[in-house]
Amino acid sequence: MTLHIERPHPRPAAPPFRERRGLPAVPPIRLAHIVSVSGSHAVAVLERQDGVANEARVQIGALVKVVTPGASVMGVISGISAPMPAAEGEPQSLGLVEINLAGEVVPDHNRRLTFRRGVSNLPTLGDAVLLADKHDLTRVYAPPQAASIKIGSLFQEPSVPARLLVDDLLAKHFLVVGSTGSGKSSAVTCILQRLLAEHAHAHVLILDIHNEYSAAFGGLVEPISLDNFSLPFWMLDFAEMVAALVNRDAHYDAEVEILSDAVVHAKKRYSESITSRSGALRKTENTMVITVDTPTPFRMSDVTAWLDEQLGRLERTQFLLPYRRLKARIESLVTDQRYNFMFGSLSVQDTMSDVLARLFRVPGDGRPISVIDLSTVPPEILDVVISVISRLAFDLAVWSKGGLPMLLVCEEAHRYAPVQDIKFVPTRQALSRIAKEGRKYGLSLALVTQRPCELDSTILSQCGTAIVLRLSSERDQDVIRGSTYEGMIDLVDFLPLLGDREAIVLGQGVSMPMRVRFDDLGKRNVPRNMNSGFSKSWKAPNMDRHGLDELVARWRRMGRDKS
To answer: Percentage of the chain with pLDDT > 90?
Structure first.
């Protein structure tokens, strides 16, 4: 006797959403099938899709998915070719699509489809390649479970927002690079505006070389210029003081040694005067060991007085020259009006907390971003000023033990952190330290440059996210190509073809490399451009003699060629 067991019929799957609503289902558009897989790179043969040619148009940078039994593998089209071109008027018989694989869509613990980096279910020969639809794009580029900000839209599908992952973007530093006129400043402004819109208690400082960002954030910005800000000379560490006061020549070593002794003497002298005025109750607080780098106030007059005292004791001419040169350099800086922000105060007071509070917005008081105008800083001391601010940011982050997350934005970073330059050693060291260790203490770095090839490679290599706008120089493209993540090197070849406000975003700050178009900020919210255009300016008189005389007067007062 044969035992017959009747198996239950499988439960039919729920119909797609469109069918449940009485709408016809839209099948996915099949573009090609896999014919080669090598590491993270795959090649597919295009298939003819009569009647859907416009919908299935294959473009560089488009997102596609490869259907495998275990997951939908997501990749970006990096190349299109025809090994055997067809004659004119005949259909193309064979087309190849090159795909860079980057991640996959799999069910999470709640059985919801979720995108994740990396590919564990590699495609094989014959697997179908489908054009990613709007739901795929949203799932990949706008993950709902991660904190993110919208900066624009995807080039592939304008209705899908392009989002940056906030924590990964800031914790691992980021780079914004592009040729002049490509929209770099507007891209930076867009990112910061979106961050501030959702994070009212942020702490952001922009080092503004061209004085263009103050007008871009409305009432959220604390504008800082040399006219309304004091950065006391005693807040410089010894390396920065040497860079400001000592010339690199035959007397360099002697002057450095002399300056060290003079500064230690001046700091001890100031500490003793404070102790005597404060009485016995303060004596125990002033028993600390004072070194050349101890962040305590001192008077520059005590430094010059000590130099005079040493000059009176010396007799041989060859020993006098370093003392005289150092004293002359100090006196020239103290009397130069351009350095009033550093040496202009008649009295020395411990204002370190005030300086830090204003620079890094503690508390924010509704203005979470400060923009420091460096356009009028004398070029010979620009390195020192930026070095001091960068070092203060790092020290503040360390001493707060990560309790004060901050973002330092460095505009035109290649100017003061170049590949190799003796003059910019302190700044390069300060920024390098932030790049290497800042994320441990909640200090983020944003580098903005038009010449990445001139930027220090150590600092550049620490940027986890690259936002790359149009870039024409081959040398600059090679730098980005060498720093590209996730095997997306081929996308760099298309950087010269990007339009204004378009960018390719690579790295940790995005779920997957993407081509984006930044939102239009409008005329009121963009960085200020000093040049309104020659065609417009030359149609009417633009300056008279009285205006020229006022300009020359300001020029002489500041000692520079900028107002």
So the answer is: 16
Identify the pLDDT of residue 26.
Answer: 52
Instruction: Tell me the C-alpha distance between 185 and 128, whole Å.
Output: 42
- Please check whether residue 74 is in contact with residue 140, taking contact to mean a CB–CB distance below 8 angstroms: yes
- Helix-strand-coil split of the chain, %, nearest 5: 40, 20, 40
- Mind listing the pLDDT tens digit for each residue in 220-229? 888 988 778 8
Q: Is the pLDDT of residue 426 over 90?
A: no
The 3-state secondary structure of 328-391 reads: HHHHHHHHCHHHHHHHCCCCCCCCHHHHHHHHCCCCCCCCCEEEEECCCCCHHHHHHHHHHHHH
3-state secondary structure of 268: helix
Q: Are 362 and 203 contacting, i.e. CB atoms less than 8 angstroms apart?
A: yes
- Contact in structure between 93 and 84 (CB atoms under 8 Å): yes
- The least confident of 46-50, 94-98, 198-202, 515-519 is 46-50
What's the rounded mean pLDDT across residues 69-81? 87
Give domain limits for the chain. 24-141, 161-230+351-521+533-549, 238-343
Mean pLDDT of the 341-349 span: 74
**Under 8 Å between Cβ of 189 and 525:** yes
Termini Cα distance of the chain: 105
What's the CA gap between 66 and 33, in Å, rounded? Answer: 8
CB neighbours of 235 closer than 8 A, spacing ≥ 6? Answer: 295, 352, 355, 388, 392
Average pLDDT over residues 390-394: 91
Query: What is the CATH number that goes with domain 161-230+351-521+533-549?
Result: 3.40.50.300
| CATH domain 24-141 topology | Elongation Factor Tu (Ef-tu); domain 3 (2.40.30)
Residue 509 near residue 169, CB atoms below 8 Å: yes
- Please check the confidence at residue 49 and state whether its pLDDT lies above 60: no
